[in-house]
Write a structure and sequence with these properties.
226 residues, mainly beta, Immunoglobulin-like, 2 domains, 10-stranded mixed beta sheet, 5-stranded antiparallel beta sheet, 1 helix, rod-shaped, PKD domain-containing protein, PKD_dom, Ig-like_fold, PKD_dom_sf
Length: 226
């Protein structure tokens, strides 16, 4: 009799355990993939989900206050840093799971600007010159300006100026920040840099600029430390 009671109890325990296992939800899973090991400020960051389960809905949290429900996560970071991206997966049964990924965003910094040639049509041979960096083509105040080079002889070009400022984004070609002007301080005339055709292109550690005159900016890439 005792053996029968133990056998019955064991059978019920097995059935109860099996029922509990059957009720445990299978969470949606996957991996967040990116095409780059790191990005640079104003790069377009694209993140894709490689999923091994049926996912009905995705919700991205990019770690900078922005979110998205698109299948491919796209975001532009405006500040360097290490961002904790969270991706919430929801399957057809309403089960959810959260995936995590770190996105490293660096910044280009200029350390030397070189004026190679001033604008055609500027007739003076000497003058006081200054390098200014701005965020637009307007007449807003520069966010950085060099010392004034007094009585500079333009026949002695190129002129190299030490700088330490962040440079735009990581795109191969950008047409906005930063706007660079070499100006003649006595008259305010722009000697090089700003013009309707001004463009910026990164190439082999140097930031080439066309427009009024010609000049370049040498830069280095700085990545945030974990």
């Amino acid at each position: 009799m005792k053996n029968k009671i133990l056998l019955t109890f064991s059978t019920l325990l097995i059935i109860f355990s099996c029922n509990n296992e059957d009720q445990t939800p299978i969470l949606p899973t996957g991996i967040i993939e990116s095409s780059k090991e790191f990005y640079v400020v104003r790069d377009l960051v694209e993140l894709k989900l490689e999923s091994s389960s049926l996912v009905e809905k995705v919700t991205w949290d990019f770690g900078n206050g922005e979110t998205s429900d698109n299948q491919i996560g796209r975001v532009l970071y405006t500040e360097p840093g290490i961002y904790e991206v969270k991706l919430t997966l929801t399957d057809t049964n309403g089960n959810t799971n959260v995936l995590n990924k770190k996105v490293i965003v660096g910044q280009y910094y200029g350390y030397e600007a070189i004026l190679h040639r001033i604008s055609n049509g500027y007739d003076e041979t000497t003058g006081d010159v200054q390098l200014q960096l701005r965020n637009s083509f307007s007449d807003e105040e520069p966010f950085w300006a060099s010392t004034v080079f007094e009585n500079f002889n333009f026949e002695d070009l190129p002129l190299a100026i030490e700088i330490d400022v962040p440079l735009g984004g990581g795109n191969e070609y950008i047409v906005d920040s930063p706007v660079v002007r070499f100006i003649e301080t006595n008259t305010g005339i722009t000697l090089g840099g700003q013009g309707a055709s001004t463009g910026y292109q990164y190439f082999e550690g140097e930031f080439f600029v066309g427009g009024l005159g010609t000049y370049s900016i040498k830069y280095r890439l700085v990545l945030p430390e974990e």
